[in-house]
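To the team - pyridoxal-5'-phosphate complex, inputs and output below.
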Amino acid sequence: MTMKSMIEQAEQDLLHTYNRYQIVLDHGEDVYLYDVEGKKYLDFMSGIGVFALGYSNESYQNALKEQIGKILHTSNYFYNEPAIKAAHRIKEISGMDRVFFANSGAEAVEGALKAAIKYAYLKDSASDHQVIALEHSFHGRTYGALSVTGNSHYREAFGAMPCEARFAKMNDMDSILNALTDKTCAIIMEVVQGEGGIVPAREEFLRAVRDLCNERDILLIFDEVQCGMGRTGYMYAWQKFGIKPDIMTSAKALGCGIPVGAFMMTQKVADHSLTSGDHGTTYGGNPLACAAVNAVLDQYETLQITSHVRETAPYLEKKLDELVAKYDYCIERRGRGFMQGVVCKGPVKDIIAKAMDKGLILINAGADIIRILPPLVITEKEIDEMASILDAAFSAVCA
Ligand SMILES: *Cc1c(COP(=O)(O)O)cnc(C)c1O
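Output:
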């Protein structure tokens, strides 16, 4: 089958919920991807922030192979050793006290919301609690996660949402106070918004939200599905400021390609929220997924991923800043670590398509922003390669 015929076949069979790039990927090597016709691409998207370790990490691959040879699944009626280890390590890296394993980011958000709503329920037995979420946020596509996702277009056709959300503006405390009611039980936000356009929360804002939550016994939920796992140069983005949430989520790079998510909470929340029978999953925390988490965390230590990101990010920022200065079409660069956005004056679709032609995979965040989300192992050499292809793409499209 040619690539074209494969794509035609897919378009016959798959539900049309994505506008896919017209490429069938075949395999990866290092930080490069190859399509079925052998074309090579430098990957600056990492499967939407998933493939932090690149595609040739042998220790990671071997750990998975070893686990496949032992056991893949046990159900949560039993304990399994990879999950026991992974939970303990997630506690260490997150500073949280209790871990629940899910299978995706959206599922982690579901659990986080349920925990927060149950916490409020145990105080007043009411069933009409509200959550404050942010405009332009993205928390996933399941109903609960959708309830708090700030893009009304995603919610419009789907009726009443299970979780009553009021939306406020990022980095705007007045807007949070406007959304606040007696029914507010939680505030959920990404520390750096991903899909919504790479918008970092400012330290003062996070601090003010934390203080408000403390005063009112409102739970603060950080969704670290995209900005977590070292992407900003800290294991979790909030750690840069030490402003700790009550509940948080993790997924995407947590499994580096094996579907796994988790939500974590402090002991205080754990003691007064979900208990036996309140939440569950068949696959969540299965041995293969948790072997992946353990292998990922081993590699983060061995390769010192967070310090690598902190050391290398200024170079990435500099190269992107040069492009922003060079092209009128660009407005600004913003972001943290290896999570950067180049904000443009109009659509970036053609620029991304041109880059793709030239062998560079990028992704947008909203129509007008190029999102830079490389594997966390990239070096200055690959940043140079990215910058020169992106430069060529800009000059071809914007000249
Ligand atoms: C991707 C993402 C999700 C959803 O994760 P899935 O694994 O796609 O369900 C939730 N929150 C944030 C911040 C994300 O970036």
